């Protein structure tokens, strides 16, 4: 019992440090829009928005129209239809009929050894001409002013890659349950302020839905052509930019753009299984450590309260059990405080907090399944393409 009390107390103390650490991390990244507007030069250089789209008929119109409604004075939009089997291409063609800023590229068949999105983006970049290129997912919608403010920040910082944490809109039960915890874990593992600090060359992150490159920096690292089959290409690109000294900036973009995905439990399982292990550098020791960490930090506090109360009721002395229950309740309160701050800063839904044990169990299962997929023992199917296995990719 004494060993459990010691471990539980250490977990509690770590969680109590969480809220002030989160505040400090958030202070270290720029916000969009900034407190003081950053001006664009006049005339503004051409800005290219490239949107890869595969079977996105439900979302592509809202994404493209939100881009076309921007107040940036000089931009173009290139949509690459990545061999869609639905109406994606015809929807974009209809929008482009009377819009000279919009271009539709009918993507070529994805060659063996390539990840589909990487191949689509290579084609989109080739069809664009801007000195800065924004690689934008089709399930993102932009609020007015987004392009102007992001472009101004990129020019002011001189960064080779400017990216942003976006606002999120989760509509399904499984999304609201699982995605907040996965995002929370990501932000704890990769502190946002350290991403922007050259003193931490190994700390990099770039949310894939919103990647704003200086074209010369993108070409200097080889772009997506340098990682044809990579499925966590956003992280790999960020690492290459930062290690090359080209400048990486992660901003708080929750007020200028929103990521809206409505996906099933199966899609969440496939999506996270596809990328998690690769994002952890494919180290089995990290999977083992991650399992232990999630168990201790996420699951243990929730088990302490009922176990402590049960022990207090049945043991000769009620004190050890009540102490464990109090430690567990205090830790859960600290967890709730961290989730509240993440909701305040980044819009990460806190309403599903009470189902944390279920979400944590999912995270552990995904971690191990992702390891099996990456080591070729299992496959996942993503947007009609198979990844993993002996011949996957």
- The pLDDT mean sits at 90
- Largest sheet properties: 8 strands, mixed
- In percent, how helical is the residue content? 40-55%
Number of DSSP E strands: 10
As a whole number of angstroms, the C-alpha radius of gyration is: 23 Å
Q: Would you identify the CATH architecture of the largest domain?
A: Alpha-Beta Complex
Total count of helical runs of at least 4 residues: 14
* SS class: alpha/beta
**Uncertain runs with pLDDT below 50, 5 residues or more?**
none
For this entry, give a set of tags.
eight-stranded mixed β-sheet; 2 domains; Spore Coat Polysaccharide Biosynthesis Protein SpsA, Chain A; alpha/beta; two-stranded antiparallel sheet; 393 residues
Can you characterise this structure?
The chain is α/β, with parallel strands linked by helices and 393 residues long. The protein has two domains: 116 residues, no CATH class; 221 residues, Spore Coat Polysaccharide Biosynthesis Protein SpsA, Chain A (Alpha-Beta Complex), CATH 3.90.550.10. The chain is 50% helix and 16% strand. It has 14 helices and ten strands. It has an eight-stranded mixed beta sheet with strand order 3-2-1-4-7-6-8-5, with helices on both faces. A hairpin with a 2-residue loop joins β9 and β10. α1 packs across α12, α2 packs parallel to α13 and α12 runs antiparallel to α14. The longest helix has 31 residues. The relative contact order is 0.15. The model has no long low-confidence stretch (mean pLDDT 90).
Topology (elements, then pairings):
Layout: H1 2-16, H2 18-27, E1 47-53, H3 60-68, E2 75-81, H4 88-96, E3 102-106, H5 116-126, E4 132-136, E5 140-142, H6 146-157, E6 161-170, H7 173-189, H8 192-195, E7 210-214, H9 215-220, H10 233-243, E8 248-261, H11 265-279, H12 284-314, H13 319-346, H14 356-374, E9 379-382, E10 385-388
Parallel strand pairs: 1-2, 1-4, 2-3, 6-8
Antiparallel strand pairs: 4-7, 5-8, 6-7, 9-10
Helix pairs in contact: 1-12, 1-13, 2-13, 3-4, 7-14, 11-14, 12-13, 12-14
């Amino acid at each position: 019992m004494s060993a459990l009390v010691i471990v539980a107390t250490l977990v509690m103390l770590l969680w109590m440090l969480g809220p002030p650490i989160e505040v400090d991390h958030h202070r270290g990244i720029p916000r969009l829009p900034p407190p003081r507007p950053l001006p664009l030069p006049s005339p503004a250089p051409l800005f290219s928005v490239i949107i890869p789209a595969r079977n996105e008929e439900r979302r592509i119109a809202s994404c493209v129209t939100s881009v076309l409604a921007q107040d940036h004075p000089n931009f173009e939009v290139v949509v690459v239809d990545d061999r869609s089997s639905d109406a994606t291409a015809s929807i974009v063609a209809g929008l482009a009929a009377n819009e000279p800023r919009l271009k539709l590229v009918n993507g070529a068949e994805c060659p063996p050894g390539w990840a589909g999105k990487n191949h689509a983006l290579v084609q989109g970049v080739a069809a664009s001409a801007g000195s800065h290129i924004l690689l934008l997912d089709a399930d993102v919608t932009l609020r007015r002013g987004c392009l102007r403010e992001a472009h101004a920040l990129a020019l002011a910082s001189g960064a080779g890659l400017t990216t942003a944490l976006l606002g999120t809109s989760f509509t399904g039960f499984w999304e609201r349950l699982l995605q907040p915890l996965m995002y929370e874990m990501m932000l704890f593992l990769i502190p946002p302020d350290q991403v922007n600090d050259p003193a931490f060359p190994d700390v990099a992150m770039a949310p894939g839905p919103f990647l704003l490159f200086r074209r010369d920096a993108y070409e200097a690292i080889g772009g997506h052509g340098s990682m044809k089959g990579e499925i966590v290409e956003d992280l790999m690109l960020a690492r290459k930019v930062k290690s090359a000294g080209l400048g990486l900036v992660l901003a708080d973009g929750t007020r200028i753009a929103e990521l809206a995905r409505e996906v099933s439990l199966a899609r969440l399982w496939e999506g996270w299984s596809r990328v998690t292990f690769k994002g952890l550098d494919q180290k089995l020791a990290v999977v083992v450590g991650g399992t232990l960490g999630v168990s201790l930090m996420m699951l243990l506090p929730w088990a302490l309260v009922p176990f402590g109360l049960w022990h207090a009721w049945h043991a000769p002395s009620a004190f050890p059990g009540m102490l464990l229950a109090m430690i567990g309740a205090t830790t859960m309160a600290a967890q709730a405080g961290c989730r509240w701050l993440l909701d305040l800063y980044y819009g990460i839904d806190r309403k599903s907090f009470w189902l944390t044990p279920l979400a944590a169990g999912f995270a552990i299962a995904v971690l191990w399944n992702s390891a099996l997929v990456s080591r070729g023992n299992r496959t996942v199917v993503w947007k009609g393409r198979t990844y993993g296995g002996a011949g996957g990719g």
